[in-house]
Amino acid sequence: MVKKNRFSEPSLLILISLAEKNRHGYAIMEDIEKNYDIKLGPGTLYGAISRLEKEGYISVIESEDRKKPYKLTDEGQIYLTDQIKELQKVTSIGLKRLGLV
Amino acid sequence: MVKKNRFSEPSLLILISLAEKNRHGYAIMEDIEKNYDIKLGPGTLYGAISRLEKEGYISVIESEDRKKPYKLTDEGQIYLTDQIKELQKVTSIGLKRLGLV
DNA sequence: TAACGTTATATCGTATAACGTAATAATAAA
DNA sequence: TTTATTATTACGTTATACGATATAACGTTA
């Protein structure tokens, strides 16, 4: 397996993508690639999506065609907010300790 | 498995701990617990430590007693800085999309 | 318009590394 | 002598990486 040397936590990136607006899987993938230059393979992407759905953080919206758009649930929004705050605490302490602030 | 609802990326937290000063495993654990209220089990902690050592991001310092203090290598410092910057990008976009900025 | 290639969209399977949990051990301290 | 400190090891579970497959839709060109 190839070790990825950059940060990548697919589920977090997916939630952030859906925080902007409702999107189907493929559109989420494009959004993430465009914003962070991180390319999620289909297995990684849809695997993370289905776990997030199972946990109730995102849910499917009905649609006519074969696209399956998702939206962030209220629970997902709360969860994401917590995650990001925690992460900001971590990075803030990190920067201090690195002497970059 | 118990799903942890908080962010936890042991290796990142360990690197940040060592960015402040050299520490042995147990002291790293205490530092992390004190700062983020995240308690790493020994398997998680020492597993992550040995991976970080193998990748050259941290290294052991000689010591007389049974403690094994580690220090952040130059490579580890660069790596950590990158990670944190990437994470800050992610959280910053996340906050914007959540409407929290 | 028919044929063809390409992009869009999703599912599934497998391998492995990270993580969680716990058992064990040994020394130091209270 | 009981508790805290410090580390190692093993095992099970899960997330992720990677890739194969499938089909629909679209665009281009013969």
From TrEMBL, chains A, B:
Organism of this sequence: Gracilibacillus halophilus YIM-C55.5
Protein name: PadR family transcriptional regulator
SUPFAM superfamilies, per database record: Winged helix' DNA-binding domain
A Pfam family reported for this protein in Swiss-Prot or TrEMBL: PadR
Domain Transcription regulator PadR N-terminal: 14-81
Record-linked InterPro entries: Metal_resp_DNA-bind_regulator (IPR052509), Tscrpt_reg_PadR_N (IPR005149), WH-like_DNA-bd_sf (IPR036388), WH_DNA-bd_sf (IPR036390)
Stretches that traverse the bilayer: none
Highest taxon of source: Bacteria
Species classification: Bacteria, Bacillati, Bacillota, Bacilli, Bacillales
